[in-house]
Design a protein that fits this description.
The protein has 228 residues and is mainly alpha-helical. Helix content is 62%, strand content 9%.
Length: 228
Amino acid sequence: MIPLKDTIPSRTFPFVNYVLIGVNIYCFLYQLSLGYSLEKFIYTWGVVPLRIKTLHGDPFHILMTFITSIFLHGGWLHLLGNMLYLYIFGDNVEDRLGHFRYLLFYLLCGVFASIVQVLSAPDAWVPMVGASGAIAGVMGAYFCLFPYSRVVTLVFIFFFIEFIEIPAFFFLLFWFVLQFLNGTLSFSSQSGAAGGGVAWWAHIGGFVAGILLLLVFKRRRQYRVVWR
């Protein structure tokens, strides 16, 4: 299933969401310009669980990687897939939280997602990069704020292509269950021990963090007092 758009238009211009998409694309293009230095760059600015566990290096730099890793990606598909989900779900969440709150919410979701992934595989030496943990937090917030929205989804059925509107509640719940199942299976695989492949627990941690942080960041509705 490939989501294409949701059915709820944003009431305000989501400039923070567009800036985040632009920064992610810029950082990836910068990565492509590094050539043979790319591997060192990723290892320097990505989250490396074993480095965190052993506190190998400058503590301030280690903390910074929790932010910098959110804006790095491992390839075109990784980038485009993440940006598609951010484009679909981010504007409405920004609309509801407000611009500054949304930016802080996004970054914190990414940090908490990385922490959960580090706890799930503390001996991993492969750098963890990508915006998917932060975007999972946005999806968690969307799950709570707009459960009755619909997601226009591209579905492949054998040799046929169908466009189906799926309720956001079921689409995001299915996505979360899929992440949880894969995350559970990763514990019994070598990839879970080595820390390679997909950071399933970052997705899970980000989604849960998005739901919990929503309680803090959601703006209270303003009620106008009418005097009779």
